[in-house]
Amino acid sequence: MKVRIHVSLKPGVLDPQGRAVHHALEGLGFVGVEDVRVGRLIELDVADSTSDEALDEMCRKLLANMVIENYRIEKLEPKGVDA
Amino acid sequence: MKAAVITFPGSNCDRDMAVAVEKISGKAPIRVWHGDAALPDGLDFIALPGGFSYGDYLRSGAMAAKSPIMQSVIETAGRGVPVLGVCNGFQVLTESGLLPGALMRNIGQTYICRTVPLVVENSQSLFTSRYEAGSTICIPIAHHDGNYFADAETLDQLEGDGRVAFRYAEPVNGSQRNIAGILNAGGNVLGMMPHPERAIEDELGGSDGRALFESVFESLSVA
Q1: Is A81 inside any structural domain?
Q2: For residue A26, what is the domain's CATH number?
Q3: Quick one: which of A50, B30, B55, B63 is 20 to 30 A from B145 by CA?
Q4: pLDDT beyond 70 at A55
């Protein structure tokens, strides 16, 4: 099973990278960009039997830093499920 | 005195740290590899050096914080043994939960390598007793991710409990309240971005870091 972990900075945590990218977009002439936040996408390929609890624990223990980041788990179609 | 300096893959200030410990305490520290299952028995002092452990993959210090030796470091710190984390070592301490908060990318996005003035905020701690509270010392920094972040409640608690050990005398990297180094609740774990081990004699450009090691080692000999 493919799983995508979306890690993003918590609201209120200043994002220096996002700010730099924002400036760069403005420099390129793009108007109307209100804000930019840079996150991280982690793709896992795990056994179909992997529990939601285990995925949650992976995020909390390592993949995200709960002091500054939030995470969202997106499960893609399991392998071997043919219509 | 029995000291240990831990080396992670990508540590690059471990030798400097070992030299500083030996020059000031008179005894060479034991060099411990991150993959070792346990620390040697009877340690009096543990140092986590600067560097780029695991290439700063995922987040600075995140991978090193989960390495086998860290469980032993956490247990030993829990028994009150002094632990000093410098630069990447500070990042490892926050990622491992031994210290609160997180170290984010510098506000200016750049790697900063220069000597900065620090204010000694607390001279009552194990690590700072040889300094005068309120005095300014000059210590080199060299980091990309030194921007200290914690929520307001945590920051208030740190300040209220005298756990801010050092503060930048002027804004350097975006750190909340200009925090450069903090202590744990027990006062035996210090994490700081500046490098005291690079300032132990005038030949290195300054010796203001020396008193930090003298403070710890003095507390050990008195104990």
Answers
A1: no
A2: 3.30.1280.10
A3: B30
A4: yes
Domain that holds residue A24: 2-75
Task: Search chain B and give the residue with CA nearest A68.
Answer: B102
The per-residue pLDDT for B176 is 97
ipTM of the complex as predicted: 0.85
Contact B165, B216 (CB under 8 A): no
Residues of chain B with pLDDT under 50: none
CA distance A10 to chain B (A): 11
Q: Is the pLDDT of residue A32 over 70?
A: yes
Catalytically active residues of B are 87, 195, 197
B216 Cβ partners below 8 Å, 6+ apart? B45, B82, B84, B126, B127
A61 touches chain B (CB under 8 A): yes
Evaluate whether B92 touches B65 at the Cβ level (below 8 Å).
Answer: yes
Asked whether residue A34 is assigned to any structural domain, the reply reads yes
Put simply, the answer to whether A61 touches B66 (Cβ < 8 Å) is: yes
Q: Is residue A30 part of a domain?
A: yes
Under DSSP, is residue A61 helix (H, G, I), strand (E, B) or coil?
A: helix
Instruction: Residue A13: list chain B partners with CB under 8 A.
Output: 104, 149
**Is residue A82 assigned to a domain?**
no
Domains of chain B: 3-222 (3.40.50.880)
CA distance linking residue B217 with residue B211, whole number of Å: 10
Those of residues 31-50 in B touching chain A at CB distance below 8 A are: none
At residue B198, the pLDDT reads 98
Q: Is B91 on the interface with A (CB under 8 A)?
A: no
**What is the structure's pLDDT at B142?**
98
pLDDT score recorded for residue B159: 97
Asked if pLDDT for residue A79 goes beyond 70, the answer is: no
Q: How many domains does one find in chain A?
A: 1
CA distance B165 to chain A (A): 21
Contacting residues for B176 by C-beta, under 8 A, at least 6 apart? B101, B148, B149, B150, B155
